[in-house]
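Entry:
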Amino acid sequence: METIGEGDDVLLYLDKKRTYLVRVEAGKQFHTHKGYVELGDLIGKPYGSPLVSSLAVRFHALKPLVRDRILKTDRRTQILYEKDIGYLMLQLGVGSGNRVVEAGTGSGALTIALADAVRPDGMVYSYEINPSFQNVASGNVERAGLMQYVELKEGDVTTGIDEEDVDAVVLDMATPWKVVDHAHAALTGGGVFVSFSPTIEQVMKTVSAIKGLPFVDVETVELILRKITVAENKTRPQTQMLGHSGYITTARKVLGLTNLAL
């Protein structure tokens, strides 16, 4: 059973709405509205262990998942939701050893998911034109322990992509249609293009650009997530739901053909 060590991150779980990503250090206290906890008490204990606060409130120390790190990133930009990242990762089909180009980095939430997928033999090349965003992303990726699988690059991909023969290009930026030709040039045969856009006008321009190049399997989707309250004689959909966040457009590069976007 894996145990918690000095310097490890843990997710302190109080309930579904109150979780805290903290680093374990001997002699360090973490204060909450439910009292403080002694983080050093977790050293040598297995993940999942309880930790009781000064007010006798029980927390549990969980091993952080990638989704926990994404949700707890230091944010300077709006990050993608779990529902979108999960679908996007499946569409990209990336795994260990793959090389992926991302733009823009933002706070690094998607960067973390990509780096976790391609390690230990792959690499994520993440472009961002705003250096302040890149600094925040660097801290988030570093804390996730994934920086060795990421190259953060300050640059504008609308003017070109440095990498060649990459397995995937994923865009979360305002003008993705200006990158489609560069993405096609950078992708290996059969490589995957993905773009996340909040407005339908962005999608229309991007798909129009895709249709001018050798791409197939072109698709745009919107994902809507509705949680269910489960309780005896009260099970029903929750009143509030996570509706529109953006549209995800995907396509796959083919060789030697033009105007084949289907």
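The radius of gyration is 21 Å.
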